[in-house]
Structure formats: structure tokens, C-alpha cells
Design a protein that fits this description.
- By secondary structure, the protein is of the alpha+beta class.
- It folds into 3 domains: about 5-270, P-loop containing nucleotide triphosphate hydrolases (Rossmann fold); about 280-375, 3-Layer(aba) Sandwich (Rossmann fold), CATH 3.40.50.300; about 395-529, 2-Layer Sandwich (Alpha-Beta Plaits), CATH 3.30.70.3280.
- About 30% of the residues lie in helices and about 30% in strands.
- It contains 14 helices and 31 strands.
- The protein has an 8-stranded antiparallel sheet. It has a 7-stranded mixed sheet with strand order 2-3-1-4-5-11-6, with helices on both faces.
- α11 (about 405-420) packs across α12.
- The two termini are about 35 Å apart.
- Bound molecules: guanosine-5',3'-tetraphosphate.
- Guanosine-5',3'-tetraphosphate (G4P) binds next to α2.
Amino acid sequence: MKYTESIEKRRTFGIIAHPDAGKTTLTEKLLLFGGAIQTAGAVKNNKIKKTATSDFMEIEKQRGISVATSVMAFEYSGKQVNILDTPGHKDFAEDTYRTLTAVDSVILVIDCANGVETQTEKLMEVCRMRNTPVIIFVNKMDRDGKDAFTLLDELEDKLDLKVRPLTWPIGMGDYFKGVYNIYDQKINLFQANKTKISKEIVSLSDINSPELDEIIGEKPAAELREDLEMIEGVYDSFDREDYLSGEVAPVFFGSAVNNFGIQELLDTFIRISPSPRGRESDARFINPSDDKFSGFVFKIHANLDPKHRDRIAFLRIVSGRFERNTFYSHIRLNKKFKFPNPTSFMAQDKSVIDEAFPGDVIGLYDTGNFKIGDTLTEGERFMYKGIPSFSPEIFQELENLDPLKSKQLEKGIRQLTDEGVAQMFIQQPGNRKIVGTVGQLQFEVIAHRLEHEYGASCRFVPRNYHKACWITTDNDDKLKQFLNAKTGNIAKDKDDNYVFLAETTFLLQMAEQDYPEITFHKTSDFKLD
Ligand code: G4P
């Protein structure tokens, strides 16, 4: 087994949240506590998520920013922490789902007033598919929010997982006094401070000592004692194995904007989070400790400058050691490529690297050879599984407005869908292009990019579909029957798989009932269903 030390020290994770819960703020604060940046405000808050209508310059800018901040790596406490950034805007959720295939664990941020929101549920569904370990950070405790026990119940109910608080809030909003660290038996007293890390930690030998009343006041002290008794009665004690298997999520409380509760979060994360894990391939399970290099592309970014159509493919290394200027096999194309300028991302700086290890994410300059899900290996032929497409939520037909530019349009839409900007379905029979996305904004991005990067002009016509389901069956007769019966609702995806486009959930259920021989899959990765 090679490179054990390099593998063991890496911690690759993502921060996920419903927009506005505080993901950007927490990311920045982790970088601040990790020593990767010196002052708050260094990570751009991508304001685009707050603009109701799209501003294309902002979109372009955001794309630029997110290339730079796609991976933020820093060293902390002997570990190399790799934070994979996910877009703030909900219309780019699909990008986030794919990024989750490249992480080994996640930190989920919840706003204490809003609790579990729609995007939180969707993101957690994706985590559950892979049993990704989750730590929950309940943010904005300096504001009035829901009662902590109510929040924990809501997390368990809506996210279908068990929780275990590791810190506990003392009051909230104007009466927020701090958090009690259940394991270390220490109180971290709250001070609102947005720019500096200031900490006042009090150790308590016994929660029943009158010292507690002196520090936080009699009433809050009595409440805290009561709460802690309840916690011990209701929740099992924390077991790291349960966390690693994705069954139990430890919960922390704090206020990211005030630098509060971050240290506990970061220190515990370093202690309990998993080192790089292996991945399933179509040949076998590949362990990070396998000697030979392999990895997969989970994200592709177009160059900001439309005159240069090169892109950056983000590769997660799964096994072995990646070396600069070494030929590797691109399995889908059955070709060898070498990379003279592989890039790593340390906080906000990009730099060319000579080597990288499992858990690392590197940027590879690409002139159009990569698609999301591509596998690179040292020679062995296998493909990584599990970069699924999920059903889009909005479907529109792409219409060409300039017949003289149909080639450009064709090329452009293929390349943009390779990048994962949207999914394209070709209606069967016929050749209509149905583009599916999770948000309206992407259609504007696509039209804008087709025009500016490919010189093609198009129009999107809304189609009344609600869900795409990938269909499979062993029964060819039934398939034929189904395809005939559902003309108008059948399409093929980029890999030539049949997809059923349903107008409503009811019609989908009817189809499932009427054709029990056919399986309807929620994602393109059938094995994960
Ligand atoms: P996101 O990436 O999850 O979308 O959220 P982001 O960090 O941008 O935070 C959303 C808003 O919530 C921001 O305010 C941010 O300052 C605020 N916020 C984050 N953490 C806390 C916290 O612990 N307490 C309180 N009270 N607010 C918090 P904004 O006004 O929208 O933007 P800004 O002008 O402050 O940047």
C-alpha cells in the first residue's frame, strides 16, 4: 500500500445549504479559522443568487469566481482540508448534486429560523443515496429562531436521519449567551464580532456547580441543566461509526457571521470526518490505497473568454498518485492524454502542481475531450459509476432561429450539455430537442452562451412536462407497446437511454401501474435506485 500518509491526511468535503442559510459565510469563516485567509470578506458573496432576474455580466462573473473558488484547500491541525464549493443559486442545484459525488462528507447549514427548507431536503436526498456522513451546523443563533428541540425533531423527520447534538445553545436571539460543549463540558460565551476571532471559554467541572449560575444567570443555567438532562435521556451517545455510515448526524449551534461556534465545528470535523473513500466502478470497488492512479471528472467549467473555448475539467482523484506530464487513459475515448498544467486551488490561489493524491481535486485544461463522468486511469479499463443525472424540473423545446447556423447550434448545445449546464432529450420519434433544467436561469444562460460563444440564436418554447424518468425492462414487447402508447412523451438522453417525460405525477403513477414490467428510474444511474 502506497501513499498511506498522504491519503490519511486529506479531508474532502462540501458545504450544502438552502440559499441564504449562511453557506458562503461559513465557508469563509472556516478558511479564517483554518488560517487560509486573514480577514473576513475575502470570499466573494456571490450576489447573483439574490438577483431575481439574471444579469449576464453577473453570471459571467460568477462563473469566473466559482472557478477560482471551486476548491479551497488549506492545512489545519496536520490535515489537508479540501472544501468543494457548490453554487449558491438554486437554479444550479444540479451542479451541486454532481459535486456531492466528489466529496467524502458534508456539512449541512440550517438557518435556525427557517429550519429544514426545500433545497435542504433535496440535497440530503442525494447524500443519502451514497450514505455520505453529514455534520449539521444550525446557524444564525444570534437571531430568534425555532426552539432547539423542535429543530432537532424537524431534522430527524424531514431528513430521515438520526441526530445527536454535540453542542447546545444557551438562549437565542437577543438572549443568546453562548453554547455549551457537551463533551468537553465547556461553555463558549457569545460575543458578537464579525471581523475578529475572539473567544471566551469557561471550563466547568460540574454542570450543577453554582459557578454556572454566576456565569450565565440563574434562569438560563436552570434551563440548560434541564435541557442537558433531556438530551441524555432522548439521544444515544455519539458513535463515530454511526456518523461515518451516514446514519447519525452530529449537530452544532452557532452564528457564522459572528465567528461563533466555528472552532468547535472545525475541530470536531477534523477529528471525526472520513479520510478519502474509494468509489464503485463498473469493474470493481477501487480503494484509495490502490497503487495505480485513477479519477473521474465531476464538473466542467467553460473559459470566461468566449474567444478561447478551452475549459477546465475538475477531476477527483480516487486512487494512486497523479503526476503532471504523464500519459493517462481516457477510458470513454480510448485515448491517452497527458496534462502539462494540472492546477490545484489553495484558498484563492491557483497553482500548477506536480502530483496529487486521493481526495484531491485538480483542474485539467480541456479543449473539448471531457464530459462529466469521464474516467482517467493508468491503463486499466473501467468507468466510475454514480455521476447521475436527476430529473429536471423545467422542460423547454429548443428552436433554432437561424437556419444558416444550425451546425453551430448543434455543436453549442452538445458542448453545453456535456458541461452539465442542462440536460438534453431528443424526442422519439422525431428530432425535437427538449432541454431540461432545474431552474429558469439556465435557459437564459444557455441562450446567452449559444449566441456569444457559438454565434447561434435560439428560442425556448415551454413544454408541459413535469418529470423525466429513465425506463428499463427485460421485456422487449412491453417496451415496444409502451413506446407506441406514449408517443409524444418518449425521448432519448445523451447516452441513448429511453426516457419517459411525464406531464404530471399522476400520469407517471398511472404509467407505473399500467406497465409493471417496466422500471421507472428517478436518476440516470440505475444502480443507485
Ligand atoms: P448562502 O451562501 O447560504 O446563500 O448565505 P450567506 O452566507 O450569503 O448568508 C446569507 C445572509 O445571512 C447574509 O446576509 C449573511 O450575512 C447572513 N448571515 C450569515 N450567518 C449569519 C449569522 O450567524 N447571523 C446572522 N444574523 N446573519 C447571518 P445578507 O444581508 O444577505 O448579506 P451581507 O450583506 O451581510 O453579505
